[in-house]
Amino acid sequence: MSPSANVLLDELRRLANVMANGTASAADAARLSTILRERPELHDAYLDFIDTHAALCWEFRNQAELSNTNHIAPVAIVTPRRSVVSMWLPWTTAVFATVVAVIAWLHPGALPRREPTNEAVIGIASAQESIAALLVDEAGAEFAPGRGPDGARFAPGEYELLKGVVHLRFSQGADMVLASPVRLEIVDSQHTRMAYGKVRVIAPPAAAGFTIKTPAADFVDLGTEFGLSVAPENGASDLYVFDGQVNVADRASGKVLSEVLEGQSSRYVDGVTRGEAPELKASEFPTPGAIGFERWQDHQHQTRRDRGLLAYFPFQRAADESVLANVLGDRDAADGPAPQNTVADGRIVGARWASGRWPGKDALLFDRDSDYVQLDIPGEYQELTIAMWVKVDRLDFEFNALLNSELADIGDVHFQLTRLGSPRCGLIGVKYEDKDLGNPLVIGRWAHVALTVSRPDLIKRCYVNGKLSRERPMLEDGTMRPGACRIGNWLPAPGWGHSNRSLRGRIDELAIWNRALTEEEVHKLVEAGRPGLLLGEDY
Amino acid sequence: MDSTQHQQFAERVVLNQQRIFRYVVSLVPNRADADELFQQTCLTLWESWERYDMSLDFVPWACGIAHNHVRNFYRKRQNSQVQLDADVVEMLATRSSQLRQRDDEKIAALRACLNELTERNRGIVENYYGGMSVQEIAAQRDLSANAIYKLLDRVREALHGCVNLRLAGGAAS
């Protein structure tokens, strides 16, 4: 190697070192970029050197994780912004093992460490023992200090839920929804002791025998769904069996005191039956699906007060089923002045009410060429954001309308999906460049799509599930007047192609702002409205 | 995807996690940023497993997902001047995903090389890569932060040389 090449290699290593240390200056980064751009033959040397740094990071990552295990983030298994675990996972231990594998992978310090081998699955099984349950979902959850989960992991130990609702999945398959306040001890994946609180348990056959011990008695599930309420003052335990059978057993002897069947209830105090429990209030025992709904409902109040909100359609069926209500008019004085341009209720034509993201939540189903909602967005805008939740059944056409101005006049706004499921945002009369930055939405899954347009910044952006999917820098300013629009369809302009743009799928929630939301704001909308913790991502 | 496939997916994840992590570090050398991106990647893999075709090689698929996260990371920080230019990152990403780094052998060689370090140097490497800040290490050892950075640079280069020598079969084991 020539002396000059050696000098260059030395410089490359120096620059790699400052990059690794995080001490690089702007000049260092620029110089390194120049070298690597102009000397592709040095890529391998650079990558090889950085890989030694990477191997060191990996080797001691376990230790780094251990020194960071004191955080409690009720939902976030990975990062404070994101959440994991599925509400769609089947109830199988095999799947739980996989969940644990992923956790073991994300947090190697938390579980017995193994070298990657062909026996990895055996490693997963042994790792399972250290986690009794995982957090699946939550709404407003707050745990007492020192009595909360580690990320999403519930190891055996004491837990105290002060506020909110939490959904746990035990490794044997039982689901438990806790409505605060609750204090319980997780003994293992099949046994808990509850001091007080209300829980709903859904146990598949694999989890038969799931037992909750209370001060009054032991409640042994035989593969069923039930609610259990334990009073804090005397431990009185009220049992409601929604499906299947639960056996009530003596705390000391384990002798079965009674068998409570579907539709029945019981009240026990200190191991003695006191007849039936008081009349059930279903809302006291939230279902897993109710958690996301509750979170969304809480967030609605905030959304309605959002600066610059022009219209907000929650997509809940009204008395007049042909009306898509804009609830922004329901603002009170505390919400601040109403926006300048008033958007009236939408008129539903053809589209039918169907179930939305959660049980109890509505959506509109668009599945015929003639289905749409008529909407008028009066006024001219410098900026605009349109955001909605959509679940696409099929993409039948080149363009599939989400919300399109009728026809194609100057200033019209077109927000639609391509046949590949990528969002497209058009402003008629404005030339633009087009940059694809993300992947399309997934057919058959709820996805959040948002369009932001800023004329001052000359930019249009489309987001899928809070991530930038397409960016269109505008080459010139133009006007923006959405005017008469159709949701889920388009009134074709004579002479324009792709005249049929009818949507095949459901829409649940639509909000429109007179400003361009930031990526962070869009992400917050996704977090508040996500159907479950596992949202189909766009990668 | 049935439960057998779930198991297979989990197995591939566990087998290849180190490779994906090192791929991320190759593009984002800062360990805290890389760790965050690795975790985001894991989350996306986990969320996307139903879309993974079991007949395909896992590593390129997973690296593709990691690459998207890296690209987003650089795009969000595009105003920062202290980072590689986007076109260079793209070039490195392509090459890095093609390289087979003999991961397990390299880790084994690295462990042997770490044992050859002086106790003090090994301690500093362990502290640094174990999550302590350079300032904390400096305070603990009554040295300047700059001295720690220089020491880390030297040790990293020594380890790099030692590992390559061992991989080339040049060291007595």
Describe the fold and architecture.
Chain A is of the alpha+beta class and 539 residues long. Helices cover 19% and strands 35% of the residues of chain A. Chain A has eight helices and 29 strands. In chain A, the strands form three sheets. In chain A, strands 1, 2, 3, 4, 5, 6, 7, 8, 9, 10, 11, 12 and 13 form a 13-stranded mixed β-sheet that branches. In chain A, strands 14, 17, 18, 20, 24, 25, 26, 27 and 29 form a nine-stranded antiparallel β-sheet that branches. In chain A, a hairpin with a 6-residue loop joins strand 8 (225-230) and strand 9 (237-243). In chain A, helix 1 (3-21) crosses helix 2. Mean pLDDT of chain A is 82; it is low at 66-98, 100-129 and 534-539. With 173 residues, chain B is an all-alpha fold. In chain B, 75% of the residues lie in helices and 0% in strands. Chain B is globular. At the A-B interface, helix 1, helix 2, helix 3, helix 4 and helix 5 of A face helix 1, helix 2, helix 3, helix 4 and helix 5 of B.
Radius of gyration of chain B: 19 Å
Distance between the termini of chain B: 46 Å
**Mean of the pLDDT scores of chain A?**
82
Binned strand content of chain A: 25-35%
Beta-strand percent range of chain B: under 5%
Largest interface: A-B, 79 and 76 residues
| Topology order of chain B in helix (H) and strand (E) letters | HHHHHHHH
- Helix/strand-derived category of chain B reads mainly alpha
Number of helices of chain A: 8
pLDDT under 50 segments of chain A (min length 5)?
Answer: 66-98, 100-129, 534-539
**Fraction of residues of chain B in helices?**
over 70%
Summarize the structure.
Chain A has helices spanning 3-21, 26-38, 43-59, 61-66, 93-106, 120-127, 288-304, 519-529, and strands spanning 133-143, 153-154, 157-170, 175-188, 191-202, 211-213, 218-221, 225-230, 237-243, 245-249, 256-261, 265-269, 272-273, 309-313, 323-324, 346-349, 352-355, 362-366, 372-377, 383-394, 399-405, 413-418, 423-427, 435-436, 446-454, 459-464, 467-473, 483-487, 504-513.
